[in-house]
Amino acid sequence: MPMLPNSSGDGDGIGTVRRQFAVGLAARIVALREDLEAVSRCPDDYHRHDFFRKAHSLKGAAACFRADVLLSHANRLTDLARGWVGGTSPTHDQIAVAQTELQQLELECERYLGSLEASP
Question: Is the pTM of this model over 0.70?
Answer without folding.
Answer: yes
